[in-house]
Design brief:
The chain has 335 residues and is α+β, with helices and mostly antiparallel strands. The chain folds into 3 domains: 150 residues, Nucleotidyltransferase, domain 5 (2-Layer Sandwich), CATH 3.30.420; 97 residues, Nucleotidyltransferase, domain 5, CATH 3.30.420.40; 69 residues, Actin, Chain A, domain 4 (Alpha-Beta Complex), CATH 3.90.640.10. The protein has 11 helices and 18 strands. It has a 5-stranded mixed beta sheet, sandwiched between helices. It has a 5-stranded mixed beta sheet with strand order 13-12-11-17-18, with helices on both faces. It has a 3-stranded antiparallel beta sheet with strand order 5-4-6. Helix 4 crosses helix 10, helix 5 crosses helix 6 and helix 5 runs antiparallel to helix 7. The longest helix is centred in the last third of the chain and has 25 residues.
């Protein structure tokens, strides 16, 4: 049995939920998918098992992502999903009341923040705290954010891209846009449908993105086979795709991220801009691993761009490190 002083950090991502426990590090990484019986509203599967059902369920079962664009779109499903993950992360035995820190996009509204806290309390949390994703990502990337020095972090997740200039432990200028990993997948689906009149699923689009996706010309044009449904005949079909044509599909969304970074830089105080120019831009999140995105950003800003080590886990690692300060936060709130 785990004691009541348990502290849990949750990276509540649109595509993936990562949980860390104070003193143990990352203990769980699962897709944020829930399979529900539409008739009884019963949760049939969560995480990896539910993800396998996407696009493969009978009429009375739906596999859904209860988080959209970094915020809760289905309160009940999110609550059940989170409860399942916490039970799994904290061993099969019972555990006492715990404190929870959850990552949220930098630009979410007060109502959306309240929804996240309510879900945390419903799952059994004694207290819930929120941390902005770029701040958590910066901590996870090993940046010392306590100093009066400008650090620009671009965190590209599944549902949102969060861009923030961080100094003395907080965001000075920030922006959040709904162009991220999921949008890249939709771009690929849309492109293949328009060019080949073939419909592919989300999971196939994800494989194409990870396999041959790029937003900067590769030295060699690589190919990949993908299966879909011919919209003329209704029959399965296999096509061969080139990385150069996937670049055509993705470049517009990639440039939206670049323009948003430039916009944040324009609003940044001159002293902090000078710091960023010296230190460079840090990229975190799974979306930052898209081939050529760092080079595209570097070419358009003139600033050196670095992809953080273990970019996918940066937010979760940062949340885990932030758990160390919960006692100080509690003491401050009591005062």
């Amino acid at each position: 049995m785990i004691g009541s002083k348990l502290d849990i950090g949750i990276d509540l991502g649109t595509a993936t939920v990562v949980a860390c426990v104070k003193g143990k590090g990352i203990v769980l990484r699962e897709p944020s998918v829930v399979a529900i019986n539409k008739t009884t509203k019963e949760v049939l599967a969560v995480g990896k098992e539910a993800e396998k059902m996407i696009g493969r369920t009978p009429g009375n079962i739906i596999a859904i992502r209860p988080l959209r664009n970094g915020v809760i779109s289905d309160f009940t499903a999110t609550s059940k999903m989170l409860k399942y993950f916490i039970n799994k992360a904290c061993s099969k035995g019972g555990f006492g009341r715990f404190r929870m820190m959850i990552c949220v996009p930098s630009q979410i509204t007060e109502v959306e923040k309240r929804a996240v806290i309510d879900v945390a309390i419903q799952t059994g949390a004694k207290k819930a705290y929120l941390i902005e994703e770029p701040v958590a990502a910066a901590i996870g990337a090993g940046i010392d954010i306590s100093k009066p020095c400008g650090n620009l972090v671009v965190d590209i997740g599944g549902g949102t891209t969060d861009i923030a200039v961080i100094s003395i432990g907080g965001s000075v200028v920030s922006s959040s846009l709904k162009t991220a990993g999921d949008k890249f997948n939709k771009d690929i689906i849309k492109y293949i449908k328009k060019k080949y009149n073939i419909l592919i699923g989300e999971r196939t689009a994800e494989k194409i993105k990870m396999g041959i996706g790029c937003v900067y010309p590769r030295e060699e044009d690589i190919t990949m086979e993908a299966r879909g449904r011919n919209l003329n005949t209704g029959l399965p079909i296999t096509i061969k795709l080139k990385s150069s044509e996937i670049m055509v599909a993705l470049i517009e969304s990639a440039m939206q991220i670049v323009e948003s970074v430039k916009s944040v830089l324009e609003k940044t105080p001159p002293e902090l801009t000078a710091d960023i120019s010296d230190k460079g831009i840090y990229m975190t999140g799974g979306g930052s691993l898209l081939y050529g995105l760092d080079r595209l950003l570097e070419e358009n800003t003139g600033i050196n761009v670095m992809i953080a080590q273990d970019a996918i886990s940066c937010v979760a690692i940062g949340t885990g490190k932030a758990l160390e300060n919960l006692d100080a936060l509690d003491a401050k709130s009591r005062k």
